[in-house]
Fold these 4 entries.
Entry 1:
Amino acid sequence: MEAEHIGLATMASLLRLVGLAASVAVSSALTIAEINGNKFLSPYSGQTVSNVTGVVTAKGPDGIWIRSTKPDRDARTSESIYVFGAKFASTNNLTVGDAISIGGKVSEYRSSKAYVYLTELASPTLEEKLSSGNTVKALVIGKDTSDPPTQQFSSLDGGFVFGVPNNVSLISVANPVLEPKEYGMDFWESLSGELVTVRKPTAVNKPNNYGDTWVIGDWKVTGRNGRDGLTQTEKDANPETIIIGSPLDGTSNPSTTKLGDDLEEITGIVTQAFGFYRILPTTAIKVKKSQKPALPSATKLKSDGKCNGITFGAYNVENLSPNSSHLGAIASHIVNYLKSPDLVFLQEVQDDNGPTNDAIVSANLTLSTLAAAIANSGGPQYAFTDVDPVDDQDGGAPGGNIRTAYFYKPSLIRLYKPNPGGSLDANEVLAGPTLKYNPGLIDPTNEAWTASRKPLVAQWEALGKKGKSEGKFFTVNVHFGSKGGSSSIQGDARPPVNGGVEDRQAQADLTANFVKSIFAKDKNARVITAGDFNEFISVAPLKSYVQTSGLNDLDAVANIKPVERYTYLFDMQAQQLDHMFISNSLKKHAQYEHIHINTWVDKAAQISDHDPSVAKLDVCS
């Protein structure tokens, strides 16, 4: 692609911002833009350079940043660079606004081979202090630069950052020419080392444990949801975002920032560290205003108490054990926000002594404790069912033996011909159709489920007056393998490593084929699969799951706007890992809601890392 050029007016403006005195000498040595080059890696890496001139724009604990006194017209080549040397500034009494000429070694640094390199000048020597007191003004993103690209991260991603196969190339090997108007990583790389300002920033996630906070500015964005976060949608993973890292003045970013918070203007240095492009602000970010209402409304989907209006909840309760500090809050959520659904799909239910690593696998105490807490919170007296896993074989926290489970109202729903299977019993669809084990697991000894939860299948009947059966339906409660081992979305591997995607593909195939076997016995069977699929609807495992199973994505059936389909926050994304799929026979009058009780609050108030969802379906018409 042809080089993108900075206009003459912009170049003149940049020179004015630098404000160099006339005494600054013009050198025939390499410029900063030449050192950076128009790719990710410097063409001069490993070489010693001299007479590099620039103005100090910022100081950090381990070095300084300088901006070129000789900017070029190429938007691909950053005009700034990091000078690494903890005592370089203090030894030479350097401060912001000093124009200097230095020498040093061009280096490419990264703290992990999974990350993109940062070009820097190491082992610096001060050759001359040319002048002091020069004006330093930050470049305003979207005004003095182009807007960040809104869809693609890298030219090496093949058009889809979550494409399969992934990890087929490395930026450090391919070293593509930057295209900053097309690809998000290229845009931020073209500003590496630059002092920038983000106007009207908005937080699009909660801070991590270090206070790092993802934001957008007043530039064009895509995927904006009603809370002012950015939702990951089909082939759009929001590369226009940037993370705000540790402040250069030693202050700390707040830990209470929430999704959608309006922040004060941010000025800082663009760099690459810990797998992400980031801005190191000159001082801590400050929250101006938070979204209202602070909490979401409760679901509007309430049970009709009969088979043509049954409600279904789904909730990953995050390592719930009898002694979990959040158990009471989970109970309150189910009663007050989910309005006590008739049947609840639960994931991440631990055994009776939680993370204690012993031979206990039963979760009866965990489930009965939650059921009692729900009743004490004004909810119904739920019955429950699950199948114990083999000890330490289903992943999750060591000793926890997490599994999926069902809560249900026995006055309205009951298991049809109950016949529970065991940990190693493979369920089958029999004539009727009915299940060999009710409830039972899908092919639990298959290697696809190594260190992962096996789907819990059940067949139910809705009860009418005097306990008469008025409609049968099947459910499949899933918690597919985790994304552990994934690489940074802005890392070296392209497309990024989507950890466990091959396992989830195999798990999706097994589950989809089981559902398909139900339809082989009854094409009009009522089937609901729900839970934590640990995958996005646009990625291969779930695309093939829908195609093979014949089920329908309930978000689409219920016409939920794509930007409002989220149950989880990760990096710069509001994203959906939790899904519900239904058979054609359940589409009529189907309704669905995601209750953002965990994604909207700050980190301290978060009860689970997932939002729950509620559906209302007719299981008898």
Note: Residues 1-28 have pLDDT under 50 and may be disordered.
Entry 2:
Amino acid sequence: MVLLAQKLSKLYHNMEDHHHHHRADVDVLSASLQAFRPDVSTCLKQLLSSNPEPRSEILCFSWIQQCLNLLPLINKAFLKLLKHIDYPMTSWEAASLDEYLNYGLNLLELLNSTSSSLSHLSQAKLSFAYGLTLVHNSPSTAIEHLKPIQPQSSSKDIKGLLNKEDCEGRFGSCKERVVYEAMVEMKSVGFWVFGVVLSSLCGETKPYLEMKQVLERFNGSLLIDVIDSCVFDVVVEKGETLKEVKELNSSANCLVSAIVDGETSDAVMDLEGKLGVFEKKMEVLEKKVAALFSKVLATRNELLHGVRQRNQ
């Protein structure tokens, strides 16, 4: 934060001959950013405090939903910052607009990838459900449909999310600098969320590890380090997968064994129950993803409309 204050001060002095602002303006802007970061930190701490016990069960549908809930919370804090510094998006310079619009586009792509991963799980759920209908009349065919859910390779090129161009030097005012610094924090959290979400739903570490590589290119964003250490331990070190998928696979394996032994009634009931819970949790998550997609798209379109009106 001291470094940021120095940057703002230097920028202010460079512009002093052209603008008649008081030094207090820089202090106000710096204070606004200092207030924004605790807001972000509070959101992350709430997520950390909601971690289930044991920590190995952190990867579950309910926790994924809480991760996604970070996106509107962080955006709300960002809008609060803009209000504090009296700098609406329609007043931004081109560099900030490009950054924000590109970030919105990245979120839409990541939400699409999330929907694709959910569709993969939905197909697996349907296969299990169909297998249940065949247990008594065609047990051998039922077994074919009760194979464990396999990890899905993520098709999203996460490394391409971050522009190679360094945008830091493109901002020409104190307010632009504050917006840039805040967007770094917002993007760090947003990208981290999808690294966790996609790895959880896909059942592989690649999206999470690639997202960590992306985040390393942001300078000094440390707000997510504490909670990320917990996620790294579960996802990478222990190789844990989504709790509900593990339970579904375990139940399906038990049913396959029961079919072979000729005693299927209890195993059928167990899998039916787990499928019902799985379906309900997935529906909640699918609605959440769809709502976020609509919100991000609407916000992006609204900003584009405002910019077009300003330029007329």
Note: The chain has one domain: 29-311.
Entry 3:
Amino acid sequence: MAVHTEFPLITYSQEIVDGQPIFVSSNCLPIKALKFEPAGHSFHSAALKLLGVQEDNNDADDKKVVDDKEQTYLPSDSYSSKSKKKSGTGDKQQDHYALLGLGHLRYLATEDQIRKSYRETALRFHPDKQAALLLAEETEAAKQTKKDEIESHFKAIQEAYEVLIDPVKRRIYDSTDEFDDEIPTDCAPQDFFKVFGPAFMRNGRWSVNQPIPSLGDDNTPLKEVDNFYNFWYSFKSWREFPHADEFDLEQAESRDHKRWMERQNAKLTEKARKEDYARIRTLVDNAYKRDPRILRRKEEEKAEKQRKKEAKFLAKKVQEEEAARIAEEERQRKEEEERQAAKAALQQKKVKEKEKKLLRKERARLRTLSGPILSQHLLDISDDDVERLCMSLDIEQLRSLCENMEGRQMLLEQAKVLRYALSSKKEEVVDEKTNQQNANGSIKANGISSLSNIEKKEKPWSKEEIDLLRKGMQKYPKGTSRRWEVISEYIGTGRSVEEIMKATKTVLLQKPDSSKAFDTFLEKRKPGAQSIESPLTTREELGVPAPASTNNVEDSQNKSTDNQNSPANGVSSSSEQDVWSAVQERALVQALKVFPKETSQRWERVATAVPGKTVNQCKKKFALMKESFRNKKSAV
């Protein structure tokens, strides 16, 4: 429509504010302004449209989708042949989305949209609907060519539908679709979200888990940011990686050849998948390093760590200062205590010296008062008695005694006071000794009673009982039911199970022949020699005089010095005891053979076997015999 030049341009007010709805004035009807005001040619065109002198061209945008569906099929050169099985004829892959009129949606197209578009496209390009095109051709060859083209186009539409409606085939086809694999490496801090946001959205199409989280903006909470990066660090892709050098399995010559092709294709696919995962990981790493939110958190964590470090250092410093202060106070307290202790010790020393001085003074006073009494020998008071009082009485008692004596005028009365003090002190000493003796007697009585109880509790085992115990243990071995009760009944002496079990660990472990060794020795002795029936035979039974007790010897020494060298109570002197008879020597030699070195209490047993000799005498005689034997051997 032609524009009339007689219409003037629109005039408007200067009070236009961006984003605010205002009304403009012109020579036409008033209109409500939009959010974005037209300017330049757009402003003039809008004014002409309002006047009705220019048509609206918005219908062209509405017809865009229809144009995509109406376009004739042409093979696309923008998609390389990467599928495992190539579609159509030739080496070029057809654009399935363009065939079905979904070129503007592509991988975003839903299954319902694919089905609807396929029905419309198939109905439109069906060979029966294209019969009119055949009539337009003049020659038969041209008609046949046109017919083949129509059928080929319809088959391509069917193939596109079969590929896009199958999820597996569509995934393979979408993997070969155009895609920007470029990874942003660096950007300005203020452009981070503009650069990396589209990259993540672009690569999110390959994610198995949908929907993918958004990168967000600068105000996104850190929890969502962490979830975003956790998602991408554990990213799982469904993308297929058909390679140009892959083998076509349909061209395999045999089964083994096909398996070999599959292995080779799997290697190429795995290599491409690793490269794609490395690319995604690089994208996530680059974004994580440059994310301003992560950088702020790291700075905050670093500042918090530094703050904690400084706080810890300050706390440690305060603690050290407090410890130093406490140590200093403790040192000062100890020094003060030492000074006080030294002062107290010095004071106590002075007091003790003063007390000693006073004590010496009182003792000298008592000796002075006792001098006349001692010179006249009144009441049999001796110097030792006075000294005993001086050393046993304390200062108060001495002072009281001296004052009491000074209060008496007569010398005899003073002597009586002194004698009374001596008798009182002696009674105290006697009472103390009596108490000690009573205490010792009670302890001794308790010990005797406890020993008697032990003897009553532990009854010794006789030889017959030991033999019966051995036979019972052999007769009733381990595994016998109620073994110890049966053995107790077998012995028949009223022994309890505890006593029998204890005897098996003590009595039965002794060597059975050790108790008969001494009896065998006595039986083998000569008839003329004096025999000892048992090791417990006393010297009185053999007629051998026993040695005198120590108390008798001391009493005899106190009474008379003439009896020191004479035998006491029938005991021979040392010179007589050193004399050995032939019988005693033979008994010693035989006892040494019977009781070897490893025998317990060897010399006690040897001395018991030799009549009239002690342990020391046997040892001395044995040493002399050994020395004599060595001398004879050296002489030979």
Note: The radius of gyration is 66 Å.
Entry 4:
Amino acid sequence: MSRLDEGFPPPTACVQWCQHRSYDLHVLDDGVEVDLDWWNGHLDRAGHDLRLRGRNLDGEIVEYGGATVQRNDLRIGTDLADGKHDSLGLLFLCAAWQGSHKHRRSKRRFPDVMNPHLSRPDENPVAKTLAVLDSCVRNRAVPDHPNSTWSGWPDAPGVGTSLMATFLWAVKASVYGGPAQLIDQYGVSTLIHEGWLEDPSVTGFTRRRYDRYVELITAWATDIGTSPELVEMWLVQRWSARLNEAGHGRYTAPTLF
């Protein structure tokens, strides 16, 4: 662990919240409503041979309208992404899930995974991104490509830090600090508010900074006797509740735990 994080214990509220929740119920069943028409329309216009799906209230798979996608659906080979490349389908499903989550800072955004700098007219415009994604799936680790960006992340057009982290979690990848975990601006804002000494902007997170983040919440989870996913969820929901109370004042429900 970074020496800057030594002696930085999990907040009491985090300990109590995590101890009253379970991984299977609160993490894997964390569902959102996804607008399939919006996503599939964008996929069609971008030229991707890919369709996203979801589930209705009866648990049946549907392809149109609003549908539920649970965090448990974010896995390679999922039934909710139909296309030639499993890794690319999973990436877009991850983007749809996190962009539709009411407690997260991530907004609905269609990732432009096309390489804008093709070296040949016949080159596949998604080849660069696919190479990174397939490597993550195959090795369950972030690839150390020779053309990695200055931040240490591999050069994958259209895939930012938060989306890459969600994809890494979905394929059960590991980083230096432990199993890959989601990272959201709300969660990092809570960490900073609690006293974490780091850059507050997720978009500027380097690989090394992300590793430190994962190592910290993994250590907190070990201390609490819970999973890092629940710690990350508390961080995110804590800030979401703080914003809710700030916006609605005394008229809001008591959600700041």
Note: Strands lie at 31-35, 50-52, 54-55, 61-62, 66-70, 81-83, 174-175, 178-179.
